[in-house]
Write a structure and sequence with these properties.
The complex is a heteropentamer of chains A (527), B (336), C (307), D (364) and E (362). With 336 residues, chain B is mainly alpha-helical. Chain B has 14 helices and no strands. In chain B, helix 5 (101-136) crosses helix 8 and helix 8 crosses helix 10 (244-256). Chain C has one domain (2-47, 73-302): MetI-like fold (Orthogonal Bundle), CATH 1.10.3720.10. In chain C, 72% of the residues lie in helices and 0% in strands. Chain C is built from 13 helices and no strands. In chain C, helix 10 runs parallel beside helix 11 (233-242) and helix 10 (199-222) packs antiparallel against helix 12 (251-279). The radius of gyration of chain C is 24 Å and the shape is elongated. Chain C starts with 6 loop residues before the first helix and ends with a helix. Chain D has helices spanning 7-12, 14-21, 69-76, 109-115, 127-130, 137-148, 154-167, 184-195, 214-231, 242-248, 266-271, 276-282; strands at residues 25-36, 43-54, 58-63, 84-93, 102-103, 120-123, 202-206, 234-239, 251-256, 259-265, 333-334, 344-345. In chain D, helix 6 crosses helix 7. The longest helix of chain E has 18 residues, at 205-222. In chain E, a hairpin with a 5-residue loop joins strand 1 (22-34) and strand 2. Chain E has helices at 69-76, 103-108, 126-138, 143-156, 162-166, 175-188, 205-222, 233-239, 257-262, 267-275, 286-289, 294-297, 321-325, and strands at residues 22-34, 40-53, 58-63, 84-89, 92-93, 96-97, 100-101, 109-112, 193-197, 225-230, 242-247, 250-256, 331-334, 337-339. In chain E, strands 8-9-10-3-11-12-14-13 form an eight-stranded mixed β-sheet, sandwiched between helices. Chain E is globular and about 70 Å long. Chain E is built from 13 helices and 14 strands. Classes of the chains: A alpha+beta (527), B mainly alpha (336), C mainly alpha (307), D alpha/beta (364), E alpha/beta (362). Chains A and B meet through strand 10, helix 3 and helix 9 of A and helix 2, helix 3, helix 5, helix 7 and helix 8 of B. The structure holds adenosine-5'-triphosphate (2 copies) and magnesium ion (2 copies).
């Protein structure tokens, strides 16, 4: 290519790892106000600010230590005691103590506008320099994952204490992470590795983030201009990996969730489980994954990924539903529904459902596949209703949809199902931030509450199995295909990357601790 | 006396642009208030999407408090808005809270100015130049090829040309980079490699815009030249025995060019619109991409800020065109 | 010189004929599209052929298929409907507004004109696309109707200026004054004396409006602000762009819709050339061959008598 | 095609001819034919025009609208544009300095350009349109002056422009004005001054005073006459106002349907018009002082040049047509009775070979 | 249909003191124009004009370009409201509402424009032009009746056979024919006053006379009151009874045509007459005919900032001190003649006027 790829220029390419960020626009904004309600913050702020814990997706999405070395709940599940790792320092040399942790955890409590991580505790209190407690109102065994959220980072109290967070953009961030900010330009951000990082020594001295577009990143990867990028690459196996199988890595790590069809149980006809079942049974998931060029990634009906939740999932419910028109028709008949002229009819009322989806995810064609399927199998004419991102969320939150395409999933079984709590249900027309499908079920409420009040793994698994059955039976949502962390790596410069077959951490930029672990394992290649 | 008159004309135009700017400000103020949607819920939804976490309702309330209460009385809001504008405070970006919109806009503006500025000038020069030639030789082979061809070229949507250009010159041939404003391996600064890189990265977007925009000028200029060439003063210039070049330049082209300046506003509008689209194709770090992003993420303050700046810049460019027109046309006619 | 007459003179030039034919072809396509795609097997714009995903043109899929195994030809035909619908509707609205503003401004002059002219100048100097973008952005998830309305609503100013200028010049022509002297009321003067002279301009404006509408819709769709449930050329390009069709060399996906837009726009431009030439006879280029032939003859004769 | 002056002979002994004509003729036009080539039938706007222009003489050309006057002017100056094409004839120009005669029809662009303005200049009907609206007057003068005299400095050219303006009664400092800053009369005078800038031998004027009113017209023409007295250029003056020409011109050519139908001195044409058309034209101007009689003008309308009538183009309107007029095209022949230059007419009434029975009465 | 029954009035010059059909008294019209700067200035297009139009009589209005002739005609036609002064139609003052007179006024006063092509809408057939006024003013309905009336009108202006012309478009007619249609259209409303604004100046010389003869016929046959505006003083003499001369927005002289033309009293009239070509002037040296001193004559004045006093004084060879300061009064010279010139002012306090310049040539 004619582009100056810049070998050996500023920063020393050999010692640098470059990340082509595709989802942050064309420029970066110098904003390390990491707790602010901004959607776009400075890129890779999680390499500077770290959370207390991490979620291990290689192992049932359980929570593992990070800055916190260990923790335990009291029996009631309302008081969590956390023990911090010793020897952690901020990049300005100050030690990281319980004071900083308590300050960081109490920030969103004291200033709700900075409560972006969805915290549920009431207060954090220092016990000693390396110990503190977190108090909950209700049993909260299941919610410890919130401390693994990178949106709940540990910030230095001595720097942050006196700042007005409504205006402060934290231009010179000081954190516990492995990197410090070297230079911030809108079109390139350069981080320098610390030599006193608690987790060990990084193999690279510089980490550079450049903004790029999804398409451009692909070309840059092919040319080796960048080392890592992320995002799905349809047919990436042929178009990328096949060209240099050794160095061109296109990796998919299941994130445990799925893209699902969510039904609006808040209004007819989808308040009727028969209708929900019938439609869920007649989605041609294979057609979708075929056009996605991700064969074999159809989701099972539970919403739990069979790989991630191998130990948790009911094997009988793991397989994706095939298209079963007869069963679906029987369901409709059971519910007393007929299909007339493309509409669902019952008791003289006739419904023409629509399917809401996000235009910006180019989802219209998948909607078409579903619509075609429903027409062909059941004769129901479902109208497509694409919306740009903003309108999509609006419609979804207000319950202004019949069927919508939405991502489901979360950390752990509770994380996946927690949103179905009927506490979150509001009438159609009012904005709901959770359970937009407005499904309420007493049994589900009971299971969710039980999950929150225990940290006994066996009990949790039992609850999980009950919940799976309930979901498969009631179909509040119907998973379509698995969601993944898509990672594209050009391993010409750095080797030692994990692979989806064998990983302890995902090399996904943005999953702070996982990325750090990945980087610690890398080695520069020769040449 | 003449100078006074010219200044008078400009002052009047200035008055118009001030009024237009005022209208833009009012529009900018009213639009978000007349339209459905509010920034606070947008921000919460975005957060939810990005973090995959549940955002509690208290957060929504608190965020509401930051971005202004939609239930405040309109007049009060307007006064407050004007006060903000006077301080060049365009509000705080939702997506990049708490970074001020003005900072982001100012960061993106130079790139767009560079792109739109140079391409407008280039397209104008190229278009009018070729237009004069085609118009002078109206009916010639050159004209009969160039004119319909240009009609076709100027009919191709900007972003489509951009896509094709990206494909051919970026992917297939690899001559030009695919996104960004300059090579990430270079340090920003006023040095040769950096400037060369800026040129290299800007070349394809610029070429795209010039490609799509020059046709309009060409066609307009051709028609004006054809009309002007038939004017008596051109006939007289020929009768005077002036050289052909002089007749074309000083008599035909010089006069044929004038209406281009009155049409500038419309042409500029098209170029700006096209440039916005082109920027998104090339991920060029300008205002267009900023607008695109703020639209996608429903960053209302940013949308407003960008629109205001784009409008003011357009008005300013038009004022410049008017000034140039005054210099070029001693008659300072009111209409073109 | 019959500037006002549209009829015979207009259809004579090749430009106009070619232009009208192309537009007619696409209009027909838009009208017959659903019937065509329904009656030709395999030509369903929304059906997914899972055996042909992202395939280049072939015998079964003449223009190839998309990433989703959908037939590009069928989509292009269906897209004509969406695009031209927006184009025509927005042009109707824009033209109506332009006439509504431009005609009284030009005819009445004075204060009426001052205000209306200010209004249209205002809209002229405003960067319209960003404005449309923003308004369409606010009206989240708009259908083609709303898109067309918005485009029309913001796209009348240039036309109004033209109409105003022409109405002004026609209104000042003696025949309007003469009919006024006869005691004709304003509305008759406006609609029977002035307006018929503007038909050429209005037609040109309408066509420009159609192009503008098609192009703007494509732009909006490209940015994701259109109804992606509906198929238009713009949403096709957007879908292609979303699926990295460019990078992946799936040219058959994004070239046809773009080309169609360009063709319609070129056709409209050609028709406008014709209208321009009619209005401004000076633009009517002399056919070179004719001149050359005669000049040749002239040279012969003069040479003959001279040497 | 009747040519009283055959270019061949002129060419063959150019030297002697020039010498002979040195004090005599400046232009020999012969058989000049100009057509407008449009889609359908060509329009023959000048047909077989033949005349001689004497040095320093004012030749008036009069005729109705559409009779080809402007076409003749642009053809004479070789300024016609497509679709006008000179299809036949010659325009031989004899320079004052005795240089070789040039046929303007076949002359190269370079030769032509050298002749322009120094030998041959033009005044157009509307000075507003003929002056470049965005150039100062002085610059438009300097343009012409410096093109033909490359040694002239810019300042000198401007100074000369000021002098020239002064000769037509416009103060020299007006050279800095733009055309729109002058009144109509001033502009017209300025463009006359411009035409004289390089001392031409021949100035053609296409209705130079129709746009101004009678008082200004007289004023301007008075100036033209005065300048002609001192500079000695010849003038071809085109107008549709025969009554003006009768007062102004030495000789007058009457055009009808692209042809010269009568050519003679002003006196001859007024006192004794030979062609019925000329007579009708003369009688279309009511007198200002003489007793009023009822005048009728010339009934009918001028012919469509695309489809000219057969025979004499005037015959459909002619009160004195007789048999054969609709078949035979009369040629322009010098009438025996006339004095000096010859009073020529193209009418079968005056063709000695044709004798209609009805002409006994003679002109009424 | 009243006009046709009225007997033609007697020969020019013998007018009885009857009430004029249309009378303008001391009419002034100013235009406010805005320059590009936005500065307002006032164009004094017509100042203190007084004119009477009588049945069966033709008044010619002559004057140089920009002297306000058209403006006056349009004032009389009801296009403009006078800035001051009064227009009286058959003894009734004309009122204007929002710049427009009532339709009834147009029934009595019709205006004919200079350019016969421009004043016919090229998109309408001749028939349309004639039917509109019939419908508007006479409520003529029904095809047969309309046809009959259209034919009548065309025949009155000698466009025969009428059927052949009724369905033609203007571009299919010659200039003279078009002007006839224009006149027929004006006649269709059966007006009492016809205002011709240079109705023949755009026509070919050869057909101008036909048009003048037609107007003359209408005057005599229908008893129309005619205002004939022209540049061409010779044609004015041919057609009209009285001549009024305008200069720079003001009327400077008026009276029976022969007297005014043969013996102009105002220096401007004299200049005008002398400047007009007249082949019948007899043998004269060309140089003598064109002896105007161009530099001395100066330019016509600006109407925005007209010269004080007599507007002609900067160009007048007889200008006196008083001319520069005071506008001359109208001096009646008998026989219906009048002039607005200090040379003829009878004010005893003023200096003795110079010998009458007009006499020198006699
Ligand atoms: N561009 C043209 N194409 C075709 N015919 C033309 C063109 N220009 C002039 N003619 C025709 O040529 C003839 C002579 O036109 P020309 O302008 O020479 O007449 P003219 O005597 O100057 O008339 P006027 O007094 O109106 O200026 C007319 O019949 C006219 O219709
Ligand atoms: N509507 C108007 N607004 C401003 N000024 C006007 C208007 N109409 C006429 N005038 C001015 O009034 C003056 C008289 O114009 P008018 O047309 O009456 O003159 P005229 O005698 O008819 O001239 P011509 O012989 O050229 O037709 C001119 O200076 C003209 O510019
Ligand atoms: Mg002419
Ligand atoms: Mg006038």
């Amino acid at each position: 290519g004619g582009s100056p790829s810049g070998e050996g220029t500023a920063g020393g390419r050999d010692d640098t790892m470059i990340y082509g960020k595709t989802d942050g626009g064309t420029t970066f904004v110098h904003n390390y106000n990491v707790v602010g309600p901004a959607v776009d913050k400075a890129p890779n702020m999680e390499l500077i600010y770290e959370p207390l814990m991490r979620v291990d997706y290689s192992n049932g999405a359980v929570v593992e230590p990070w800055l916190a070395e260990s923790w335990e709940f009291d029996d009631a599940g309302t008081m969590l005691t956390v023990h911090l790792r010793d020897g952690v320092t901020f990049s300005d040399g100050e030690p990281f103590t319980a004071d900083d942790a308590v300050f960081s955890l109490n920030l969103p409590i004291e200033q709700p506008e900075f409560s972006i991580a969805g915290v549920t505790y009431e207060k954090a209190e220092k016990v000693d320099d390396l110990t503190f407690t977190v108090r909950f109102a209700a049993p909260s065994f299941a919610t410890v994952k919130q401390f693994a959220n990178i949106l709940l980072p540990m910030v230095p109290e001595h720097v942050w204490r006196d700042q007005d967070l409504n205006t402060w953009t934290n231009p010179e961030p000081v954190g516990t992470g492995p990197f410090t900010l070297a230079e911030f330009k809108p079109q390139q951000v350069t981080l320098t590795a610390r030599d006193d990082y608690w987790g060990g020594e990084l193999p690279m001295s510089t980490y550079k983030i450049i903004p790029t577009s999804a398409d451009a990143a692909k070309a840059q990867l092919l040319r080796g201009d960048i080392d890592i990028a992320q995002g799905s690459w349809a047919n990436g196996e042929q178009e990328y990996t096949a060209k240099d199988p050794e160095h061109n890595l296109y990796q998919l790590y299941p994130n445990g969730g799925a893209m699902s069809a969510m039904f609006n149980a808040g209004k007819p006809p989808f308040d009727d489980v028969h209708v929900r079942r019938a439609l869920a049974m007649t989605v041609d998931r294979t057609a979708i994954t075929t056009t996605l060029q991700r064969p074999g990634t159809e989701s099972g009906p539970t919403g739990l990924n069979a790989t991630v939740y191998a130990d948790w999932i009911n094997p009988e419910l793991a397989d994706p539903w095939p298209v079963d028109a007869e069963a679906a028709k029987a369901e409709l008949a059971d519910g007393g529904w007929t299909v007339e002229d493309g509409a669902l009819v019952k008791d003289g009322e006739s419904y023409r459902p629509t399917i809401l989806f996000n235009n910006d995810w180019a989802w219209g064609s998948y909607a078409d596949i579903m619509i075609n399927g429903w027409r062909d199998t059941l004769g129901i004419e479902v109208e497509p209703a694409g919306q740009p991102t903003a309108g999509y969320y609006d419609a979804m939150n207000l319950g202004d949809f019949d069927i919508t395409a939405a991502s489901t999933g979360g950390a752990g079984v509770y994380g996946v199902y927690g949103f179905l709590d009927s506490d979150f249900v509001v009438p159609v027309g009012e904005s709901a931030t959770l359970n937009q499908g407005r499904w309420s079920n007493a049994e589900a409420d009971e299971i969710i509450a039980a999950m929150e009040s225990t940290d006994d793994e066996a009990e949790l698994k039992e609850l999980g199995l009950r919940m799976q059955e309930l979901v498969v039976d009631e179909v509040p949502f119907s998973p379509l295909y698995d969601n993944f962390y898509f990672v594209e790596i050009n391993a010409k410069r750095w080797s030692g990357w994990p692979t989806p077959d064998d990983f302890d951490h995902i090399p996904f930029v943005g999953m702070g601790p996982d990325l750090i672990l990945t980087m610690l394992d890398l080695e520069p290649t020769e040449g | 006396m003449r100078a006074v008159r010219r200044w008078g004309f400009l002052l009047r135009r200035l008055g118009f642009y001030v009024a237009a700017a005022a209208a833009a400000i009012v529009l900018n103020f009213l639009l978000p208030r007349l339209m459905p949607g509010d920034p606070s819920s947008a921000i919460v939804e975005e957060l939810q999407r990005v973090s995959g976490q549940q955002v509690p309702p208290e957060t929504l309330e608190s965020i509401r408090a930051i971005f202004g209460d939609p239930d405040q009385n309109l007049a009060q809001q307007f006064v407050g808005y004007l006060g903000q504008l006077a301080r060049f405070d365009l509000g705080v970006s939702v997506v990049n809270f708490p970074v001020p919109v003005s900072e982001l806009v100012l960061q993106a503006l130079p790139w767009t100015l560079l792109l739109v500025g140079t391409t407008t000038v280039l397209a104008f020069v190229l278009g009018t130049g070729l237009g004069v030639i085609a118009g002078w030789k109206a009916g010639s082979r050159l004209d009969s090829v160039l004119t319909p061809l240009t009609a076709f070229l100027s009919s191709v949507p900007y972003f489509w040309v951009a896509l094709l250009a990206l494909w051919v010159f970026g992917f297939v041939l690899g001559w030009f980079p695919l996104s960004g404003g300059y090579d990430a391996n270079l340090a920003e600064g006023f040095n040769l490699p950096f400037l060369a890189s800026v040129l290299h990265y800007g070349a394809l977007p610029a070429a795209t815009i010039v490609f799509s925009a020059f046709g309009g000028w060409l066609l307009g200029m051709r028609n004006m030249t054809v009309t002007t060439v038939r004017e008596d003063y051109v006939l007289l210039a020929q009768a005077k025995g002036l050289s052909r070049g002089r007749v074309i330049l000083r008599y035909a082209a010089r006069n044929a060019m004038l209406p281009s300046f009155t049409g500038f506003a419309m042409a500029l509008g098209g170029v700006i619109g096209g440039a916005l689209l082109t920027e998104t194709v090339f991920s060029y770090p300008g205002i267009g991409y900023l607008l695109f992003e703020s639209l996608n993420k429903r960053d209302y303050p940013m949308m407003q800020g960008v629109f205001l700046i784009v409008t003011l810049a357009t008005l300013l460019a038009n004022l410049l065109a008017d000034s140039l027109y005054v210099v070029l046309d001693p008659r300072i006619r009111e209409q073109g | 010189m019959r500037t006002g007459l549209l009829g015979a003179g207009l259809v004579r030039g090749w430009k106009v004929r070619v232009g009208l034919s192309v537009i007619g072809f696409f209009v027909l396509l838009a009208l017959l599209g659903p019937w065509l795609t329904a009656s030709i097997p395999g030509l369903d714009p929304r059906a997914n052929d899972l055996t042909a995903i992202g395939q280049p043109p072939s015998a079964t899929h003449w223009l190839g298929t998309t990433q989703f195994g959908q037939d590009v030809l069928a989509q292009t035909i269906e897209g004509a409907r969406g695009s031209l619908f927006v184009g025509f509707l927005s042009a109707v609205i824009g033209t109506a507004l332009a006439i509504l503003v431009g005609l009284p401004a030009g005819y009445f002059g004075g204060r009426t004109d001052a205000w209306l002219n200010f209004l249209s100048n205002l809209f002229i100097v405003m960067p319209v696309l960003p404005l449309i973008l923003i308004v369409a952005g606010y009206m989240q998830g708009t259908g083609l109707w709303v898109i067309a309305l918005i485009i029309g609503f913001f796209g009348w100013s240039g036309g109004a200026r033209t109409i105003r200028a022409q109405a002004m010049s026609v209104s000042n022509r003696d025949f309007v004054l003469a009919m006024r002297t006869l005691g004709e009321p304003h509305h008759r003067l406006l609609f029977h004396e002035v307006l018929p002279h503007l038909t050429g301009w209005i037609a040109a404006m309408f066509l420009s409006g159609v192009i503008g509408g098609v192009m703007t819709e494509a732009g909006l769709a490209f940015l994701g602000i259109s109804d992606s449930g509906a198929i238009s050329w713009g949403t096709m390009i957007q879908a292609a762009q979303q699926q990295s069709a460019v990078l992946r060399g799936m040219w058959w996906w994004f070239v046809p819709p773009g080309l169609c837009i360009a063709l319609v726009a070129t056709a409209a431009t050609l028709v406008n050339f014709g209208v321009d030439e009619l209005a401004n006879p000076k633009l009517r280029a002399v056919r070179r061959s004719v001149v050359r032939r005669t000049q040749g003859r002239a040279a012969e004769t003069t040479v003959g008598s001279d040497v | 095609m009747v040519a009283q002056f055959v270019p061949d002979t002129d060419r063959s002994d150019a030297g002697t001819t020039s010498a002979r004509e040195a004090g005599g003729d400046v232009l020999h036009v012969s058989g000049l034919t100009v057509e407008y080539v449009t889609g359908g039938d060509p329009v023959r706007a000048c047909a077989d025009v033949t005349f001689t222009l004497r040095r320093g003489e004012i030749l008036g050309v009069a005729g109705e609208s559409g009779s080809g006057k402007s076409t003749l002017i642009t053809a004479l100056t070789r300024l016609q544009r497509p679709p006008a094409v000179t299809t036949a004839g010659s325009i031989v120009f004899h320079p004052r300095d005795g240089g070789p005669a040039v046929d303007l029809v076949t002359a190269s662009p370079k030769t032509l350009r050298a002749l322009r303005w120094t030998s041959l200049s033009i005044v157009l009907q509307s000075a507003m349109d003929a002056l470049n609206p965005v150039m100062r007057l002085g610059a438009q003068f300097a343009d012409a002056l410096r093109t033909h005299d490359r040694t002239l400095s810019k300042d000198d050219a401007w100074a000369r422009a000021a002098e020239l303006l002064a000769t037509v009664g416009i103060s020299g400092d007006r050279a800095r004005s733009y055309p729109h800053e002058l009144s109509g009369g001033m502009r017209q005078r300025a463009s006359i001054a411009l035409a004289l800038a390089c001392g031409p031998e021949l100035v053609v004027m296409d209705e130079p005073t129709t746009a101004v009113d009678v008082v200004m017209q007289r004023q301007i023409l008075a100036q033209v006459l005065r300048l002609r007295r001192t500079l000695g250029f010849a003038v071809v003056f085109v107008t549709h106002d025969l009554s003006l020409l009768l007062e102004l011109a030495d000789r007058i050519a009457i055009m009808y349907a692209g042809r010269i139908v009568e050519l003679g001195t002003a006196r001859e044409l007024y006192d004794d018009p030979l062609h019925p058309y000329t007579r009708g034209l003369r009688d279309s101007f009511p007198p200002l002082h003489a007793p009023l009689t009822r005048l009728t003008g010339i009934p009918g309308t001028p012919p469509d040049l695309r489809r000219p009538p057969s025979g004499c183009p005037f015959h459909p309107r002619c009160p004195r047509r007789f048999e054969g007029c609709d078949a035979h095209l009369p040629e322009l022949v010098t009438s025996g009775r006339s004095d000096v230059g010859g009073h020529a007419v193209a009418c079968r009434l005056h063709d000695p070979t044709v004798r209609p029975e009805t002409t006994a009465g003679g002109p009424a | 249909m009243t006009a046709t029954t009225v007997p033609a009035p007697s020969a020019p010059g013998a007018a009885e003191p009857e009430v004029p059909v249309l009378r303008a008294t001391d009419v002034t019209r100013h235009f406010t124009v805005r320059s590009a700067v936005g500065a307002r200035s006032v164009v004094r297009a017509v100042e203190g004009a007084t004119i009477d139009l009588h049945r069966g009589r033709v008044v010619a209005l002559v004057g140089e370009s920009g002297s306000g002739k058209t403006t006056l005609a349009r004032l009389l036609a009801g296009f403009y409201a006078p800035t001051s002064g009064e227009i009286v139609l058959e003894g009734v003052p004309v009122r204007q509402r929002r710049g427009r007179v009532e339709r009834g006024y147009h029934k009595d006063v019709q205006l004919i424009f200079q350019d016969p092509f421009g004043s016919l809408n090229p998109l309408h057939r001749v028939r349309h032009n004639l039917e509109r006024p019939l419908k508007l003013h006479h409520g003529v309905r029904g095809k047969a009746e309309l046809d009959r009336r259209v034919r009548e009108l065309l025949e009155r202006v000698a466009l025969t056979p009428a059927e052949q012309y009724a369905d033609k478009f203007p571009h299919e007619l010659s200039g003279g024919q078009r002007q006839r249609v224009v006149i027929a259209r004006a006649l269709a409303v059966e007006p009492k006053v016809l205002l011709g604004d240079e109705p023949i100046s755009m026509l070919d010389v050869s057909i101008r006379l036909e048009m003048l003869n037609l107007l003359d016929r209408l005057r005599t046959e229908d008893g129309l009151a005619l205002l004939y505006i022209t540049h061409d003083i010779a044609s004015a003499r041919y057609l009209c009874d009285d001549v009024v001369v305008m200069y720079a927005g003001e009327m400077v002289e008026g009276g029976p045509k022969e007297q005014v033309i043969a013996d102009p009293q105002h220096p401007y009239t004299r200049l005008l007459v002398e400047s007009s070509p007249d082949p019948g002037r007899g043998a004269r040296d060309r140089e003598a005919l064109f002896d105007a001193d161009a530099d001395g004559l100066g330019e016509p004045p600006s109407l925005i900032d007209p010269p004080p006093g007599c507007r002609f004084h900067p160009r007048c060879p007889f200008a006196m001190d008083v001319c520069r300061t005071q506008a001359p009064p109208r001096a009646d010279l008998g026989d219906g003649r009048w002039a607005r010139c200090w040379l003829h002012a009878t004010d005893p306090t003023l200096p003795e006027p110079a010998p009458d310049p007009a006499q020198e040539n006699q």
